From TrEMBL, chain A:
<keyword id="KW-0970">Cilium biogenesis/degradation</keyword>
<keyword id="KW-0963">Cytoplasm</keyword>
<keyword id="KW-0966">Cell projection</keyword>
<dbReference type="Pfam" id="PF07162">
    <property type="entry name" value="B9-C2"/>
</dbReference>
<keyword id="KW-0206">Cytoskeleton</keyword>
<comment type="similarity">
    <text>Belongs to the B9D family.</text>
</comment>
<dbReference type="GO" id="GO:0060271">
    <property type="term" value="P:cilium assembly"/>
</dbReference>
<feature type="region of interest" description="Disordered">
    <location>
        <begin position="195"/>
        <end position="214"/>
    </location>
</feature>
<dbReference type="InterPro" id="IPR010796">
    <property type="entry name" value="C2_B9-type_dom"/>
</dbReference>
Automatic annotation (TrEMBL), chain B:
<dbReference type="GO" id="GO:1904491">
    <property type="term" value="P:protein localization to ciliary transition zone"/>
</dbReference>
<feature type="compositionally biased region" description="Basic residues">
    <location>
        <begin position="55"/>
        <end position="64"/>
    </location>
</feature>
<dbReference type="GO" id="GO:1905515">
    <property type="term" value="P:non-motile cilium assembly"/>
</dbReference>
<dbReference type="Pfam" id="PF24656">
    <property type="entry name" value="CEPT76_peptidase"/>
</dbReference>
<dbReference type="InterPro" id="IPR056290">
    <property type="entry name" value="CEPT76/DRC7_peptidase-like_dom"/>
</dbReference>
<feature type="domain" description="CC2D2A N-terminal C2">
    <location>
        <begin position="496"/>
        <end position="621"/>
    </location>
</feature>
<dbReference type="Pfam" id="PF15625">
    <property type="entry name" value="CC2D2AN-C2"/>
</dbReference>
<keyword id="KW-0175">Coiled coil</keyword>
<dbReference type="InterPro" id="IPR028928">
    <property type="entry name" value="CC2D2AN-C2"/>
</dbReference>
Amino acid sequence: MSGTNCFVLIVNGNLSHAEFPGAKNLACSYQFVYGSDWEVVRVTGEGANMETGLTQLSERGAGTRAIYLWNFPLEITFRSTNPYGWPKLCVNVCEGNAKTTIKGYGWCHVPVNPGRHSNTIRLFKPRNSSIIQGILSSITGKTPEFINPTSICEGEGREVTRVQSEGTVRVVFDVMIKDMTKFGFEPVNTKHHQSILHEDEDVPDEIETSKRLN
Amino acid sequence: MSDLIERLSPSKRRKNRGLPTFEDDEEEQMLIDTSFNQFNETETTTVEQTQTSYRSKRRKRSNRNSRLEVINEQTIEDEGDAVIQVEQDIEEEPYNDDVQYKLDDEEDEPAPTNLQTKQSSVKIKIPTKTELPLNRCVPKKPDAKEVHIKQTMLLTEISNQAPAIDGLISKLESKKESLQKLQPQLITSKQDVAAEMCVQSCAKLTEQITFLKEEYKKMYRDRDLKAEGLYVPEEPHLLKNKTHIIEQRYLRQPNSLERFFDEDGHLPQYLDPVKITPTKVEEDYLDVNLQTDPRELLKKTETLPHEVTTSYTNRMYRLEIEIKDISFNEHEIMSEEEYHCKQLVEMYNQYQELTRPDSLYHYYKKRTISLTSEMKKIRNTLQSDSDNQNMVHLRLEMKKFRSLLESEEHKQLRLITNIVEKWKLVKEIRSKNQIVTCNVRFQFDKIHHDLAQEQQERDDRIRQEMLERYEEGSTQQESTLYQSILDRINESCRQPGQPEIKPILSKIEITKETNLNQKEIQRIQSIKNHEYYIKLFMNGMFVSKTLSQSLRNTDNNYFVVKFSEVIPCAISKWPDSLWMEIWQKQGLMDTKLATTFIGIPDSINDSKSHFQQLRFSCNHQKPFIPLWDPNHPDNQTGWFSKWFHKPNPSLYKLNNGCICIQLNWIGDVPSQPSTNNRTAVDSHQDLIKNMNFRFDHHSHDLIDPNDPRNTGLLSLLTRLKNQIPPNHHSFHLAQQDEHLFFPNDQFSENHFRLHLLKLRFETKNKVPLQIPFEPSIEMVKNYESNILKCLHDDHHASQYVRKIRDHFKNQDGDSSSNQLPQKSFRLVRNNIKVTQYVSEPPMPQLSNGDSWFTLFFEPKRPLRPVRINREQSMIKNYELIKKCNLVIQIVRGFHVPIRANDENEAYRTYRSHRLKQVEEINQFRRTGKEPTIDHDDVNEDDHDYIKQSTVDADNNQQETTNHSKKERVMSFVMVTFNNRTQKTKINEGPFPQINQTLILPFVPPRSDFKPSTLSQIDQHIYFDLFDELLIDNLKDERDIHLTSQRAEFRWLGSFSLPFETLYTNQGQIMGTFRVKTPDIRLGYQRSDQHTSLSVCVTLDPPLPMPIDDDQDDGFTTSGEPPTVYQQARFFVHRLKDHKYAKKRIVLATGPNADGQATLICRFICAQEPPKDFIKPSQVVRFVSMIPFVSDRMSSDAQDRWLNSQEFLDHGASDWEEHANLLCNYFKYFGLSAYVVVGRAVPEGETFYVMEISKPDSSSTLDSSPSSPVALQQEVITLWNAATGDRYSIDDALCPLHQVGCVYDDTNVWANIQKESQPSKMRFNFESGSDWRPLYRRGDGTPIDQLMNKNKRLESVQPSQLIYRAIPDSYTTKIENNLSAQIRRNVEQWRRRGITIWNGHVGSILHDLLKKLEEVKQNNIEMKQQHDDLLNEVLSSYVVVGFPLNYAYTEPRPIIDEIFNTLIYENNEKDVQFALAVYCHPYVSNFCSLWVYIVSLVQKDQY
């Protein structure tokens, strides 16, 4: 009974880095958003099982590329019986100077296929609704923010907001799925998928920069 | 060799198609032959083509052997290595022509991969293969596999040969060349034979090469599909050597031929499926088509490609729009002559049109003639029914054409008369202006006709018609019928005999410029300055614009803008809309004049001259008045009429004219969208219908059936054609929802959670419960029942809901009008605001003027808070108020008592100091070392400590903290309201800057914010001022390392603010309040100044005020004569309008106990105080001891003025009674006393008593130290009668801050001075500019009616007041009662430890209190006496405490106040308390109550 009452989605991974032109330092807070029929499996013992988290504040490294490295681990396990409300990772990036200002929001689904996935989350942030407010916010540093950061994971009310695009966040997921076939869902062939995904992965920046130097 | 070549393609081809191969050659051959015979007989032309190719192959086959021989000979002779090699290869070949004639027909056999394409295409164009007999050649294969292998081997080899053959040819050629070179050499070297041989072989070789080449071409690449009319997509370009490399690579793979090569031996090259079709039509692509008519093309205009869709076909239709010209019929600068000439020319053109030989007129004429003859013919031979029938038809037709003809004739006639009239008008104008601006001239030819002949014709015509009429069955008389027809014809036609007038257009000389006047020259020049251009829009998008051209006059045509431009448009489908905008160039800003929509022709125009005339009117422009019009401003004489004359609006005209354009489709015409389906959203049904429609439309020429890209479409179309009707439900996803949600039924039955989820799904989220992962069976049952209930409820859903639901359902079904739900949907969506989702710093309020901007530049001063003025309570509806807070801001304190140079403190510091020293000495003793401290100090007698310690303490304090010890006080304020307490921080010094805001919640009884209940609240806000004393608790020398301190709160004073006054003051009280301090504060310096606190109290939010009745007319009845009452009212009313006095409180009448308006002066008269009181100060004391109760609190919340006797009987009342009584007593003592009406904090509207003592009068009050007065001046003192406080008129902290009016027994004076602060006012009532009296004495005002004999006002007061004495038993009872209560409460408040009451000290205190009461009455200093009495106690105890004095009403407020003093909060171990209660009786139940409470700590313990 205990083996078949749900399927389990184990997500490991990390919030790797952000590419963000025009920022000094960045930290990222994340939150897993999932449907009401889902549940986070709390396992006692070792291993962080965090629905939410905040990374360290990362200064921009040397070099021309604006990369902010976090390498922040994500470890979480979900379980459910039906895939509706599949977990999403909601991310918001903020710059921490004298006061924290939100630089961008973004989200992505936790991959549905087992295996390693590296996703690039493109960020956006709401725009000022008028020029005067834009000027004021540049003076005061109070930029417009979403009242509920996870509202970007839903479609509701998005049509009234105006956003502008910002940088990107790279997230790497290692997904494992257990017992899904028992519930009538077939995960996609992993082999095929992996081969595609490996192409997608980034060339490490170090190599690139060293190439350029040489 | 040729075998080899021949074999290549067909065999391979067959192989690739996966067809069975034939093992038995002969059998196959036979089959083929037979099939061929039949072929020949039945084939259509297409097949014949293949047949011929077959025949040619046959021929080749027969020649094969001979050819090979030739090659052999050749190669032997020439000893060419390569050739030999080839030859060997060929001979090694085991098979010759095994498969080669597997017929080309097969090529048409559909390949399995694109079976559908072929089928469909075949249906359209090519005869189906199924008819072909070839299908009979089904092979019977015993061992297909073996053959297969063989075949593959062979094919591999052959393909290897292919480049070899190429190589062979090239080698042969090179050989030939070398032979040709060899030949002259041989000739020169006289080797004739060899030379000849060479020549021969050379010739042979050339022959051979050509042959080979031909064969190779024919067989190896024998098909040119393009030439055969099949579609061949363009292959992407690839370099030859690259192709070769790739081919070689593939060939190394096993089965390479099958896998990689097509039947031609090519590597198949596929079109790039993701190749982006260019969306912009290239320029040259258009160029080709622009050259259609070079004559017409003047300029090529740049075009934006219009709406290019990436449809399956990137076919573009081309629409050419030729814009010829614009001609204005009316223009603002047209002259009258031009205007009329223009019309004339137009009419002439129309006339020309009408009289053209191919015009309608002629057509109708001919038609009628032929019809008549026809009818005549039938009439003559009228026999059968069919003829009759014909006649009826003919008659109808005749009727129709006759009327048409007549209308044409009429038109002509009218036109001619119009022309003639117009011409006359033009001539008139010309003669009037004496200039000719247009070269139009008309001449009229008169063509005379024979009258008789014409009459005859007319008669015939009428007769003819009459005949018809009679045939129809008309019963009219002949003559009348004749006349009616004649009349009609005469109306429309020229009268017989009249000459026919024919206008002829000719030219006339225009007046030369030199003869024109200046105005006209200007006008003509300005014509050229008008420039116009046209913008073309298609589907709402801008396509192109023409060059701007100027307005000109040409021959016979005036005000024309010639464009002659062709705008080509490429478009992928039928345009939705097409319009032009006419723009006028005007300096920098161009103006739009008009918009004209253009109809799009639905076919290709044949005639080039088919120009459309589109009328337009410049409705975007201002209307104008024609120049020649007398109303035109230029034609007005006189400046007045020029500027101010406003002509009749009907005279205004708009520019209008025609655009002459021509639209042409070049090439094909796109299909017009069907108008029905255009707006409605396509359902899949519509889509299919549309598809069908399109199929019909496109099938003829638009879809290339051979284009493989159309495969899908064609198959779909065929399927659609065959399969009707389509499945209606196939598009509904809802039926599958369940399968999407849940794995399967079997599974979910065993699985509780899934079962529950399924149930939840069924209820459509009506039960949005979270379902746990491991639900118990109970829960499942629970849930099930819940859901069932839900479903049940849903079944009984309200009619309304269902109605609406049905409504929307119906609307949805009706696809054409589902606007309502859409609208409601939109409404719902529109309600979303960004602020619900995005938080943003708010927009600065621009409405507040410039303030927001200056905010940036204002200096920020956080230490200087700015109080924001609050708007008056806007909340009228008290039900909306949920909670309310008391916001109390304590700003600063004044004159906080300073600690006296306290002996106790000095002792304490000394002691701790000494204890430290003792410890140090002990330490040194232990270590055996000499302490550095002076021993004498230690051994000193304890009794000398005071002297010593003061010095020590001084030093100590100066060392540690640099505070000046003298002014040491650490005060804080505690605010108590409704049993809730808040404290400020501790501030040092006698003038603390507190600046702190405290918030206390305010909850009215039952949370009811009704104004009526709020005004009944009898609660006080207590402000208590404390001094926090930190006491070093060191008692044992061994505890030297411990720091133990005890905080002791010393109560310094308090004042209270009734909530009612706060409420009636509109929720805001602000000011500096005198703190009620005890008369004696032990341990503190007595200061002459009164301690006060600056406080601001508000309510947040402001509470609604009770609705005030109009106060003036609040009296129901008047106790005065009407005239007096009127005067009093008039007095008050007039002051309402006064510049300064309008906001001050001015009274003339007050309601007496019965509510009758009574003149306030009548409340004042001298009254005798009780017998014991012989001094005014005693009287003050007595009056202040009469309890104070606001009128609002008592009885019916109406203000009442009681007379003194009623007041004393009542036992309590508010300001005016106290003031009146005090004033009356003062009068009794012969003082000049007045009652002042004004505003004060915190009381609000209040009454004070003012006493003016003349400098020379001896009977003034005792001079108090607080008001040092120069003897020469009159001294004015204000008394608060209810509290007994006295204020000098110069006191800035006097709570009375606004004086409204002053009255005494003689008159009322209203303050009309600018200042209302008493300290700034003048109190000379005689001065008319400062004070306005109610009446002037002796001037006969109505108030004189109230005068009695002594010329004084009659008083309402009784002449003699009756006082009752208080029995002693009453006071002792109160004392005992109260002291018992206080003791009990103090014991309760002190939760830990036993409370010891020191009776001895208590009795001493009781004596003290008696003394204090005396002091109070006589207003004298008694500090010294007090200290003397207490000395005994003070020597052995540290005494902390104070006496309190009250006008006794009930014990509760007294106990509350004691609670607030925190005197009981002494946690010293052996603390004792002493309490004394003393009740001093006055008269009539009034007594002064004293409470003395102290805490006692033994000095040893301290």
